[in-house]
Design goal:
17 strands; alpha/beta; 2 domains; 13 helices; Rossmann fold; two-stranded antiparallel ribbon; 15-stranded mixed sheet
Length: 512
């Protein structure tokens, strides 16, 4: 298949998610619908929701996965047993996943957030995989994910719950795989649980597609994309750059995710801005390929794009390259200690989440799915722990939400990172934190997926390496004034991205 032609500069624009008022959906009654309510967080909301759905006429089954390990305290394994029922002809076609912990988002970001989220995602994947097989055999149903941030879909610092962000990313990606299925995400805030459960039950079952709603005392909210004025030409040599810490003696920069794609382009563009002595050290961390990915598709980038380390050394940058698993807590701790013994202080972290080979949820092995999510979530926390208190700049590169199908794992991880970065910025004023979602492109091997064919019909653009480098430089230079989470998307917007865009300038959306 021929490579897509690069898009002109004017065909990309920077966006950020914002919370806007919304109307509740008006769906079909729950009468006679078989629903499995899974309690993934201790609290009364799951019970209240099961009760209200039953009063609305649904046939409700309950599942307790509070331990998040797939096992009850008595040693039985409820997730596999209940999951089997989802593939039976008379089994539930709807899953209600209640993960409403009601955290305030005020506690410092820690690796425990990542560990808890990964455990929850593993259980959710196991259930939804079986649920999806039931949809394929017996007809579509739905998935309702319930979180408790601030009632505005996490639109304020008080609602920065990375676990809720991961569920939002999972729902977005699942919608790409199953467009006829209703995928719902509801943020109930911290109001009365009974009232929230009653509101959800009364809204009924909406039609297929993705629906996201925040329920606050003042009304309903949803998330839309708002265009930002920044362009890839908005650069100033006096503003901070991605590799500026290399000018500082004893400083180190940690980069994960390899040096292909946008990571390598951004590093080389940043190095070109530097002049004079560079006593600092750039440490490139790269994982050995996961077993399930060692027979991956052919590289989509030319060899020149994979030569970032020699190019960087040619520009005077001291580069160390290490093969290390960023998910390995012990190995990353040892790395941080070793850098300290060498007299180095980590000033900058760049976490390149990368793009994995996409497979449908029902086809991807559990270990490969969990490995992809862990590389993003656990890897980010381990990088922060290795950096320690000397960190001043944290940048995460992920994929845009309007991306490839078959990416529930990476989409959940990317959305977690976006919220975690915002929480890091809110909690550590001495750190400039930025999460950038880059455009994604088609991968060989996904041509047979119906959702891939739908994406191809919209003509997705490919981001030219030079243009990507300019955007990376401009975004880093303005990181302190930009929102913590930004997305670079091709315009005119198409599909779900166009539907998610807010009207601006007299009601004209950014779709022109």
């Amino acid at each position: 298949m021929a490579e897509p032609a690069p898009a002109p500069t004017s065909h990309f624009r920077l966006f950020t998610p914002t919370a806007v008022p919304a109307e509740p959906w008006a769906g079909a009654p729950w009468t006679g619908v078989c629903v499995l309510v899974a309690e993934a967080a201790a609290g009364p909301l799951a019970g209240e929701l099961a009760r209200e759905l039953a009063l609305a006429g649904a046939r409700v089954q309950a599942l307790d996965v509070v331990e998040l390990t797939g096992r009850r305290t008595d040693g039985t394994a409820p997730v596999p047993r209940q999951a089997r029922a989802l593939t039976e002809p008379t089994g539930p076609r709807w899953l209600v996943w209640v993960s409403a912990r009601g955290g305030t988002g005020q506690a410092p970001l820690s690796s425990s957030d990542g560990a808890r989220t990964l455990a929850e995602l593993a259980c959710l994947r196991a259930l939804v995989k079986e649920l999806a097989e039931g949809w394929e055999r017996y007809g579509p149903g739905g998935l309702l994910l319930v979180t408790a941030a601030d009632g505005r879909s996490g639109g304020s610092p008080a609602g920065l719950d990375p676990a809720g962000g991961a569920l939002a990313g999972f729902a977005r990606a699942l919608r790409d795989e199953y467009p006829s299925v209703a995928t719902l995400l509801v943020d109930v805030g911290r109001g009365p649980h009974r009232s929230a459960a009653r509101r959800i039950a009364r809204m009924g079952r909406p039609a297929g597609g993705r629906h996201a709603l925040g329920l606050s005392a003042g009304g309903c909210w949803t998330t839309r994309l708002t265009a930002l004025p920044l362009t890839d030409r908005d650069q100033d040599a006096s503003t901070p750059g991605l590799l500026d810490a290399l000018r500082e003696p004893g400083a180190a920069i940690l980069v994960s995710g390899g040096t292909t794609g946008i990571v390598g382009d951004a590093l080389c563009a940043a190095a070109e801005r530097l002049s004079g002595p560079l006593p600092g050290k750039l440490v490139l961390l790269e994982r050995a390929p996961h077993v399930s990915q060692r027979r991956r598709h052919r590289p989509s980038r030319p060899p020149a794009a994979r030569s970032a380390p020699p190019r960087l050394r040619g520009m005077g940058v001291t580069v160390d390259h290490e093969v290390i698993d960023v998910c390995d807590v012990r190995a990353m701790r040892v790395l941080g200690e070793r850098l300290g013994l060498l007299g180095l202080t980590v000033r900058t972290v760049l976490h390149g989440a990368g793009s994995e080979h996409p497979l449908k949820l029902t086809e991807k092995p559990a270990d490969a799915w969990e490995n992809t999510a862990a590389a993003r979530i656990a890897g980010f926390h381990n990088l922060l722990d290795a950096a320690g208190d000397g960190l001043r700049l944290a940048v995460v590169y992920g994929s845009g939400s309007a991306g490839l199908p078959g990416r529930t794992d990476s989409a959940a991880g990317d959305a977690y990172l976006a919220t975690a970065v915002a929480r890091l910025r809110a909690g550590r004023r001495d750190v400039t934190a930025q999460c950038v979602a880059w455009p994604v492109r088609d991968h060989p091997g996904t041509d047979d997926l119906p959702c891939t064919q739908r994406l191809e019909s919209t003509g997705p653009w490919c981001l030219d390496p030079d243009q990507g480098a300019r955007w990376a430089t401009a975004i880093t230079a303005q990181a302190r004034t930009l929102p913590a989470h930004v997305l670079l998307l091709p315009v005119p917007l198409t599909g779900q991205a166009a539907a998610d865009c807010t009207p601006v300038e007299g009601g004209v959306p950014w779709t022109r």
